[in-house]
């Protein structure tokens, strides 16, 4: 049950120009801003920013900043974040001025506290039973932004980004029909003489297919798999202004694959899974390493430290669809006979930015990205100030932006 795959590369590449983009929407309007906690004034990452019809979306970066591009001039944005009250933000005529948004921590009422007496397994079973009606039945074509990075210590050695089109067949159909195709992408690589190892994620943007936990129920969300876990009710929270059951889970048995710790969030009204947070059980290091590692060169030690995943779904008033995913892998790795090992941090995130089409048809298989492919091998080094044009992206954080600047200077 390998969810994530890290493989070895020497990170030695030719500098090639990337072909022009394909089929960008004409997103003529742009709104930028920063989101903070109303009490602490701290900037909030991974805040969902959408137009009121939900057709265009993004999330804030690690510094709380966002830019959302839209086809029609927006008059209002919907802003939501786990643990905070959702907020509708009215926009003025001047969209050039950066807006400042302050979210208030969500309050837990006495009524919500009563649910702690409910059997969590009954809630999960009810949510599993409601899956066929809670998620999109139509085939959809979605536009996504995908980013993956590799850090050795504190230094970024690899950054890659892409805009991709994701075909999602109705949730009552087989996941094998889902496909994703890169429309535009770039990578930046920085190696030093001391760098003999790098890491990349096998499958890249196909994580949006492989980690669709509601559709690939055998990965985690199935009656059979739930029998491997202890479940516990936690303090209720709010997502998008909607109250959620929060249920934590932990391994309850020993199986021949690695289990997880984490939390799942279930909409109290619809009984839909809206968010799942998972952390790989590292108690058996060898088993964890086998779950993460696909390939390494002979003579290299691989010591996994952490693997975490977040998958979220958005409710559009009728059904849910995938909205955001984020994965983190941390490990130490180096050649045998060396005194010290090098810490690595491999991160990937994807957000669905636009609903392009309902009742969509899949793209050709020849255009689709395969789960055994590496994104690193599919895009080439390229930089242009207007590279993303009208596409919605997740803004780079200040630290990542500085790293990208340094990587560009190396070229």
Give a written overview of the molecule:
- The structure is a single chain.
- This protein is mainly β.
- The protein has helices at residues 110-113, 120-129, 131-134, 207-210, 223-226, 285-292, 375-378, 398-409; strands at 6-9, 29-37, 48-51, 57-59, 65-70, 76-80, 87-90, 99-103, 140-152, 155-168, 179-189, 198-201, 229-239, 242-251, 260-267, 273-280, 293-295, 300-315, 320-335, 342-358.
- The strands form four sheets. The protein has a ten-stranded antiparallel beta sheet with strand order 11-10-9-20-19-18-16-15-14-13. A four-stranded antiparallel beta sheet has the order 4-3-6-7, with no helix packed on it.
- Mean pLDDT is 82; it is low at 1-24.
SSE blueprint:
Blueprint lengths: L5 E4 L19 E9 L10 E4 L5 E3 L5 E6 L5 E5 L6 E4 L8 E5 L6 H4 L6 H10 L1 H4 L5 E13 L2 E14 L10 E11 L8 E4 L5 H4 L12 H4 L2 E11 L2 E10 L8 E8 L5 E8 L4 H8 E3 L4 E16 L4 E16 L6 E17 L16 H4 L19 H12 L2
Parallel strand pairs: 1-17, 2-8
Antiparallel strand pairs: 1-12, 2-5, 3-4, 3-6, 6-7, 9-10, 9-20, 10-11, 13-14, 14-15, 15-16, 16-18, 18-19, 19-20
